[in-house]
Design goal:
It is built from 10 helices and 3 strands, in the order H-H-H-H-H-H-H-E-E-E-H-H-H. By secondary structure, the chain is mainly alpha-helical. The termini are far apart. One of its GO terms (cellular component) is cytoplasm.
Length: about 240
């Protein structure tokens, strides 16, 4: 009886601790040149537009998996692993064929998500200054850009991303990519983008991707996007 009781208590303790240990494990990137940074805000900071559970799973599991898989793919390619991620992605066709697909998928996933967490935040707002002027000049104004962006995101078949890219002269353009591909692979700079993989929205929006795309604008951190725009014009924007 004593042994059974001890076993039962041990089992209950394991069940109680499992979520905490599991979350910690998924939040840590395995050893390697690339690391998973913590979110710059709480999991529930973007609610109700993006729920806390989605943020936890998206960052701590999906993004962490991309980082871990990227480090694994690079472990026998020391010289390549020393390069910045944007440099690796810009020459993806020259990456050894044996690891090219793994690096394309997981390196792209790491770059896309790193950008994604940075350009979101609570509070909303609107673009201002040179960024607002560029949106008016190149994309027909904020409302037209949002409508075109949402339409492009809705047209992505299966999983992928929709981006606004920025050239060194500050010119903006809209494009979408499948899977975890990124404009970085075409030596372009990403100003901002939205993830239209189902794991980014399914818990709240189910199959209603257009509703997610529309709601997502409420969590765009336009101050951060403005900083990225200025960095791009100065030749200092990386991921």
């Amino acid at each position: 009886m004593q042994t059974s009781r001890r076993t039962m208590i041990t089992g209950l303790a394991a069940i109680t601790l499992a979520p905490t240990l599991s979350r910690f494990a998924f939040a840590q990137a395995p050893t390697g040149p690339f690391r998973l940074d913590p979110l710059p805000y709480a999991n529930d900071a973007l609610a109700p537009h993006i729920d806390a559970k989605t943020m936890e799973l998206h960052h701590d599991r999906h993004h962490a998996a991309y980082v871990g898989n990227l480090n694994t793919a690079l472990k026998d390619h020391g010289e390549l692993a020393k390069e910045p991620l944007q440099s690796i992605l810009a020459k993806i066709q020259q990456v050894p064929e044996a690891v090219r697909t793994a690096i394309r998928n997981n390196g792209g996933g790491h770059a896309n998500h790193t950008m994604f967490w940075q350009i979101m935040g609570p509070g909303g707002g609107k673009p201002a200054g040179e960024l607002a002027q560029a949106i008016d000049r190149d994309l027909g104004g904020l409302e037209k850009m949002q409508n075109d962006f949402n339409a492009a995101g809705g047209r992505v078949f299966g999983s992928g991303w929709v981006f606004v890219t920025v050239a060194k002269d500050g010119k903006l353009a809209l494009e979408s990519k499948p899977n975890q591909d990124t404009p970085l692979m075409d030596s372009k700079h990403v100003l901002f983008g939205n993830d239209v993989w189902e794991h980014a929205y399914y818990l709240t929006y189910q199959n209603r991707r257009p509703d997610y795309l529309k709601a997502w604008w409420n969590v765009v951190n336009w101050n951060k996007v403005g900083e990225r725009y200025a960095a791009a014009k100065a030749g200092k924007l990386e991921i």
